[in-house]
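Why do we care about 3D structure at all? Because function follows from shape, and shape follows, mostly, from sequence. That is the central idea of this module. The next example makes it concrete: a single protein chain, its amino acid sequence, and then its structure expressed as tokens.
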Amino acid sequence: MEMGRIIALGLVATIFAVLLKKETPQISLMVSAAAGILIFFAICTPLSGLISLLRDAAEKAGVGSGYFGIVLKIIGIAYLAQFGAQLCADAGENAIAAKVELAGKILIMAASAPVLTALLELVMNLV
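And the structure:
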């Protein structure tokens, strides 16, 4: 049922954005951005339940909470970077969208550095 509401919101916002684009492109962009933000908030509740479920599974599997937190941070950075880049692309700013994507990739590498370091140490101890 939730997906039906999200699709309906997306379709209504798309129709409004397309109709407004000819007359007032600024308002069209605002409609698109507002729809994106509303959709993002609509998925926050199911997302928090999923994170709790994954956290419980990670604890049962014996995965350290530090590593689990890093993985969640990386996933969050990836989704937010994609969302921001799409908003920039919708506004016609493809160059800025590419920079947002690049920043997201760099931040993912920075966030994953502790995991990569631990993996390298593990490999070095095996050799």
